[in-house]
Amino acid sequence: MTDANILDRTEASRAKRLKASTHEAHDRLDRRIMAGRPFESREQYGRFVSVQHAFHSDIDALYVNPHLDRLLPDLAGRRRLGLIEQDMADLGIAPLAAAPVLPLRADVDRATALGWLYVAEGSNLGAAFLLKEAMKLGLSENFGARHLAGHPDGRGLHWRTFTAALDAISLSQVEEDHLVAGATASFQRVHALVDTAFA
Asked: In the prediction, which pLDDT does 12 show?
């Protein structure tokens, strides 16, 4: 029995079950990103930012979806695409060319969309380490690494507010499966973008 199966039976938090279910995909992505040495130079970091831009372009419509906005707190305020675009302008970076085909449909169901948003919001929680590395390249929350900045209320509180709302949503078992599939597909999408950017 896997850790994910154990959590399915004993853990009340949907966010924690989701974390367990996607651990392998998340870990594989983290290893792939670091293998690209994104903080070796500004040029390498630019490749990382281009990945962020492609991914957040993919999901930007989710942040202005009125149905999702009613389920999640300050969803529109969590958008990071604009900050990423400012970082790209700071660094003179062009959008990623020849990005893989996007697996996220325009008419995506809410549970799948929530899985994608879980990954995007979780990445912001882990961005504190990335910001420290970016600062070694002379970048900051005001230049080149704006999208890695934490929320004024703190990363932890911002994340807990999101996961509390996610946990409170009523989902059927089919939707729970779609949630996990959406999060897994999101990690796989970023992995494909990283492969393209760091090829």
From this structure: 66
Q: Which residues contact 93 (CB under 8 A, 6 or more apart)?
A: 46, 49, 50, 53, 87
Please check whether residue 2 lies inside any domain of the structure. no
Nearest to 68 by CA among 22, 60, 103, 123: 60
Domain of 184, CATH number, reads: 1.20.910.10
Residue 27 pLDDT greater than 50, yes or no: yes
**Domain range for 176:** 26-197
Position 4 in a domain:
no
Do residues 145 and 87 make contact, with C-beta atoms less than 8 angstroms apart? yes
Residues 139 and 41: their CA atoms lie apart, in Å, by 11
pLDDT, position 3: 44
Residue with tokens 């085909």: 101
Long-range Cβ contact pairs of 73-79 (< 8 A, separation 24 or more): 73/161, 73/162, 73/165, 74/161, 75/117, 78/121, 78/124, 78/162
CA distance to 14, 95, 109, 185, per residue, from 171 (Å): 10, 36, 12, 19
Query: Is residue 11 in some structural domain?
Result: no
Report the predicted TM-score, pTM, of the whole model to 2 decimal places.
0.91
- pLDDT tens for 66-104 read 999 999 989 999 999 999 999 999 999 999 887 777 777
Query: Mean per-residue pLDDT for 131-145?
Result: 97
Count of domains in the chain? 1
CB 179 within 8 A of CB 112: yes
